[in-house]
């Protein structure tokens, strides 16, 4: 398992609901947490590792030692939102790219944990931003889609480089030849 980079088509897939909490889902969540920590991320969604599950992992503190800040969320949904705030945002599928993105300041999220227990959480600021960013991934929406026109134009060269790197990886055989990016 590895984190796929833009413009890998898995990043534009509408993830499917998890219908059973089997061993594969539990193993995927564990591997995703390891990858997230190794990449110094705060969250990771299944489409970012080319899985089509509605599964995300988060550690609001970004600290693998702080298990209290860790969440494995299955089939998460945002139930309510309030306010708005713009702040700098990045993504593990776009290493090195950061731009200002407008998000809701507060979200109320519902999800199931790995035991199948329903959970609900109300978060503000950075935690709210992480939920929105990761849930967007489950719908094939990327943070570049949320950028304003100025942020998007500032990112143009970086995005072109991601596409060039993707094509180079395909030619080298690092990616299957049938993968066509969905920009």
Q: What this model shows, in words?
A:
It is a single chain. By secondary structure, this protein is of the alpha+beta class. The strands form 2 sheets. Strands 1-2-3-6-7 form a 5-stranded antiparallel beta sheet. Strands 4-5 form a two-stranded antiparallel ribbon. Strand 6 and strand 7 form a beta hairpin. It is globular.
Indicate the percent of residues in helices. Answer: 25-40%
Counting DSSP E segments of at least 2 residues, the number of strands comes to: 7
Gross geometry: globular
Q: Structural class of the secondary elements? A: alpha+beta
| Biggest sheet record | 5 strands, antiparallel
Q: What is the rounded Rg?
A: 16 Å
Order of helices and strands: HEEEEEEEHHH
Strand content: 25-35%
């Amino acid at each position: 398992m590895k984190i796929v980079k833009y413009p890998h088509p898995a990043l534009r897939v509408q993830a499917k609901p998890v219908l059973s909490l089997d061993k594969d889902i539990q193993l995927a969540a564990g591997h995703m947490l390891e990858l997230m920590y190794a990449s110094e991320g705060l969250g990771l969604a299944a489409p970012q590792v080319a899985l089509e599950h509605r599964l995300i992992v988060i550690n609001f503190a970004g600290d693998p030692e702080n298990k209290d800040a860790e969440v494995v969320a299955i089939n998460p949904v945002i139930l309510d939102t309030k306010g708005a705030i713009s702040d700098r945002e990045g993504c593990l599928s776009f290493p090195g790219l950061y731009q200002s993105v407008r998000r809701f300041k507060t979200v109320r999220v519902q999800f199931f944990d790995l035991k199948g227990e329903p959970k609900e959480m109300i978060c503000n600021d950075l935690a709210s931003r992480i939920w929105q960013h990761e849930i967007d991934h489950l719908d094939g929406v990327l943070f570049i889609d949320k950028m304003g026109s100025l942020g998007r134009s500032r990112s143009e060269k970086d995005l072109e480089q991601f596409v060039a790197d993707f094509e180079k990886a395909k030619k080298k055989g690092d990616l299957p030849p049938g993968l066509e990016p969905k920009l």
